[in-house]
Amino acid sequence: MSEALLSQPRLITLEGGEGAGKTSAIAAIRDRLQAAGHDVVLTREPGGTPLAERIRELLLGAQDEPLAAETELLLMFASRAQHVRQIVRPALRRGAFVISDRFTDSSYAYQGAGRGLDPEWIAALERRAVGLKPGLTLLLDLDVREGRARTAGRDLWPDRIESEQDDFFERVRAGFRARAVAEPHRFRVIDAAQPPAGVGAAVEAAIGAYLRTLTDSDLA
Ligand SMILES: Nc1ncnc2c1ncn2[C@@H]1O[C@H](COP(=O)(O)OP(=O)(O)O)[C@@H](O)[C@H]1O
Ligand SMILES: [Mg+2]
Fold first, then answer.
1. Against a cut of 0.85, is the pTM above it?
2. What is the pLDDT of residues 38-59, one digit of tens each?
3. Is the pLDDT of residue 1 over 70?
4. I want to staple 169 with a disulfide (CB 3.0 to 4.6 A). Which of 105, 144, 175, 185 is the partner?
5. How many domains does the chain have?
6. Is the CB of 197 inside a 6 Å radius of any atom of ligand 1?
7. Domain contains 100
8. 1 lies in a domain?
9. pLDDT at 39
10. How far apart are alpha carbons 40 and 21 in whole angstroms?
């Protein structure tokens, strides 16, 4: 029997391709929530705990053999299972907001749409190994070439997934957008091609509007 997937109002995730501005946005979200008096935990995937960060190294570092798509998916969920139990659930239980730089939507986009793995399998892993979903997901949507140009300035050399070709990243982008269309109540799509101030204002507006929808029991 599969377990229920519970929506968690205080779990907010940032999704989007490389260079879309997720890491840049996350600090602004933390500041906005802290200014409103909330306890905030910032985290990221893959990773977020010492063990999960070691799995991240396996996933993103160079390997001396090809990493099978199925291995990649299971390592992503191994990392996420650990992250959820060590970091996300304890923080939510004590009433904090958790802001995660990537979460399960990235597996649907990269391992599902990008690598072609069955979304039903991903959904089963999500139910059994994760068991919760964000109340709000900000999708920073950006042209693949623009994202690549931005990360070229940031990284000395690309990691294993960043080294994929543009057609892979086009499938990933389409995968993210399809998820946003399928769950319009959870997602806010932000045009990440705007200058940083414009993206920041859009993020701020989305967070402000979302906080106004939360009830006292969501915040307890
Ligand atoms: N709106 C923007 N316009 C131009 N450059 C940006 C913008 N947002 C972020 N950048 C730059 O692009 C690079 C990638 O941003 P980052 O926040 O690390 O993206 P991500 O975490 O989504 O990969 C960084 O060098 C950052 O300074
Ligand atoms: Mg980043």
1. yes
2. 999 999 999 999 999 999 999 9
3. no
4. 144
5. 1
6. no
7. yes
8. no
9. 97
10. 20
